[in-house]
Design brief:
Layout lengths: L12 E5 L4 H10 L4 E5 L7 E5 L4 H11 L4 E3 L14 H10 L7 H15 L4 H12 L7 E7 L2 E6 L5 E4 L8 E6 L8 E5 L5 E4 L3 H14 L5
Antiparallel strand pairs: 1-3, 1-4, 2-3, 5-6, 6-7, 7-8, 8-9, 9-10
Helix pairs in contact: 2-4
Amino acid sequence: MEINNTYNTSFKGGFRFPNMPQEAKEKLPELIRKRKQIFDNFEKEGDVFYLVRDSWDKRVMRFIQEHKLKFEYYPQISTKSGLDTEEPEGLTKLLKKLKPKPVTTITQLRKAISTNIQASLVKSPEEENIKRIFDALRLDFENYKSSTSLNGCTVLTDIESGKRIHISPASKNGINYVLVEPKSLDLCVERYAIAEDGQILAEYKTPDGIRQFKKNFNDTLAKKW
């Protein structure tokens, strides 16, 4: 059963970096591999305008902090604005038309991102529980866009890495069994039992543990898998 995207933040943003250092400029294309536009030397030599979509603003904020970058943030502009990197004058015209007042400090940026997240998330007890699970596993909640449900199991997919998170319904004791499945066969599958308060109760690694995990997971489902 397909579920609407209630688990992802869906907001947008454009970042202007005045006189961006070369080291940061070289790393920028790999920061987000998809759903971005880069306007190099925008209006001024050394300036970069970086457009992102969906939930990438938080990642860009961390990049700004890491490299101590000066920036201007324009939440009204994104890759959905119909702009072409080969025609930067289109972006210039849009900025002149909108006359937006940019965010220029990390404190303001953090507040703007938080406001966007709160506005775009449809809150429910189930979503709050999933957020606690992601926090426990130190996963970036905003990266997981698509979600499906099978026999009560929720599956979320990282839109960049392809990693899949399988979350069982809560057991009668309020425990979720979580399977973290990497896209690469070279990486190990991870299995956890997580309490309703977000505490990791167990990690299953041994053959006996893996068998027990599967039994516990299956016991929470509406049907066996």
